[in-house]
Design a protein that fits this description.
alpha/beta, 252 residues, Rossmann fold, five-stranded parallel beta sheet, 15% strand, disordered C terminus, 9 helices, two-stranded antiparallel sheet, single chain
Length: 252
Amino acid sequence: MRVIALNGSARGKKGVTWKLMDAFLKGLTEGGATVKDTQLHELNISYCTACLTCMHRTPGQCVIKDDMNQIYPYLKESDIFLMGTPVYTDTMTALMKTVMDRCICCLDPFLRIDEEDRTRHPYSWRMPAGFFLISTSGFPEKESFDPLIATYKAQTANFGSKPLGEICVPGSIALQVEPQNFEPHLDMIGQAGKMLALFGKVEPTLLEEINTPILSRQKYLQIAARYEDWCRRRRGETSSQAASGRGNPGEN
């Protein structure tokens, strides 16, 4: 099994997203998979200009020459695409969305009806057959991931691939403030990666356990209050306020 793993976090290997991905990739490797990981924030990838040259004049080839050319070969030869992205304004990061947009060069301009009775484009080359999502969010609720998961599944369908599962761990701020709460989850995530490499799927019961919030919302807000105090000091504010549940601690 060959896997391409793209980390769309602007924080790269410093963020919670990569901690999740790293545990999963170690499990994949232990299970015998060949993994190529890439930090998107280190690359220079331009936005799609919708020129459609890739469809009309140079089928399968994007006219833009930049670091996306480092990614295309791995997309073409891999069995699984591991999409790592924190939740940014309810969906994937701009880094990851830019990569997804630049992958339209695998599409032909013609129209077909797929097995789900949806109008789609056929393909000049194929993306990996399986997609897998790994994400984190600055909010503690599981519902924070709903728009991202919907977008991820829509992207998967656009490329004629199959969604193999999602690992979505909320509460990233508290996981940075008190990382000891995180360790048991990393072990389970490693097990999930190994399971995917060995059997081509992850048991739903394991995914459900991984995706169960580590902390209650009340506990999360108590821990996040320490981050809020740090933010106020950075802003030059002298008063400290208790976490009220109205703040937005951000994403990673």
